[in-house]
Amino acid sequence: MRVSVEEIIQRTIAKVNSELRKLSLAIHDNPEVALKEVKACKLLTDYLETKRYKVERNVGGLNTAFIASYTSPAGNKGLNIGFCSEYDALPHIGHGCGHNLIAVSGIAMLLAISEVLDKCSIPGTVKLFGTPAEEAIGGKIIMQQQGVFEGTDILMMVHPSQGYSGSWHSQCSLSMVVEYFGKASHAAMAPWEGINAGSAATIAMQTIGVLREQFKPEWRAHGIIAVGGQVANAIPDYSRIEYTVRAGNTDDLKIIRDRVLKCFKAAALVTGCTHKVKEEYAYLDNQDNPVLGRMYEGLMREMYNVPLFPNAGGSTDFGNLSHNYITLHGMYDLADTGVPNHSKQFTEDARTEAAHERTMFAAEAISRIAARCLVDQDFWDSVKRAYCNKLA
Length: 392
Prior knowledge:
GO terms for molecular function: dipeptidase activity. This protein is an alpha/beta fold. It has twelve helices and twelve strands. The chain has helices at 5-15, 17-28, 38-50, 99-119, 139-145, 197-211, 250-271, 290-301, 318-322, 344-349, 353-375, 377-391, and strands at 54-57, 66-71, 79-85, 124-130, 154-161, 172-181, 185-186, 220-227, 234-235, 238-247, 274-279, 326-333. A hairpin with an 8-residue loop joins strand 1 (54-57) and strand 2.
């Protein structure tokens, strides 16, 4: 009996559904923040080795990054397909972005396409990239700089949200840590002897607040005073701000960055403090391939009667990959409630059975798209043309 590619994918994912559910819950119940995802990384890589995948750990200089790979018995002359898993959590919130689900979706897609390569005798290679620190630092950016993704023809992943989309244009973002250094003194006996680093942080925040009047509607600037002082009766000699700016493109991001840096500098100048700014890697805007995106949205419409996810808000280090590779960052609806990511309710929803089943459906949809790239040369040519047109 002849079995279709779609049936191979569906059966493969169904076979491991309960195993992946257990993995997802184990990661959800033990949330680990950026670059500390030791338990999650071990759970995932140990599982992959039980499925006889070749697993490379400590990839790109990151001890919680990995690659699992499989080459078809027909050889490696075909496409090199890559999927991405994320598994870091948010501080104090846990898996409020559903990375426990993204982790197992990557495994599902890897297993499905491995089976397609094997059963259909199609030459090619499939890899799962374990990518830590998406919520902070930008693990994919570091891995890309280290050449980890080189040789990959296409990179794909799924992400839970409040709707579905195959063309999510995320915002560029840049995070900064600003430190102010002043001089401590007794706040009652000799305040004039002090230089108030806490005041510098306050002025910086207020100045940026005033600056927002000149922001474009899609620009964002948000942050916190992480350290403002220790006790009320002492002039603080140290403060720290954690700040993020966002824009729709890299040119606008540079404009916001330059303006905000002036606010930080002005706060130091007016208070007499010195200051230091540390910038993290900039997350670039995500640019999904339109041919892949249309197919994904068509498949998702078969399952969900929910609106497309709006192209507003949020950033991802996957966006950096989309500027150099053919990519698809498929969004899918987590719970049909409209609850936003990075919330306590989203964290709770991310461990439900319904959320897991939706994740497996999204993984199946992405796998079907990847398989079509393998077996339909005309489709793959159209994907490549769309990518070249983007670069033109």
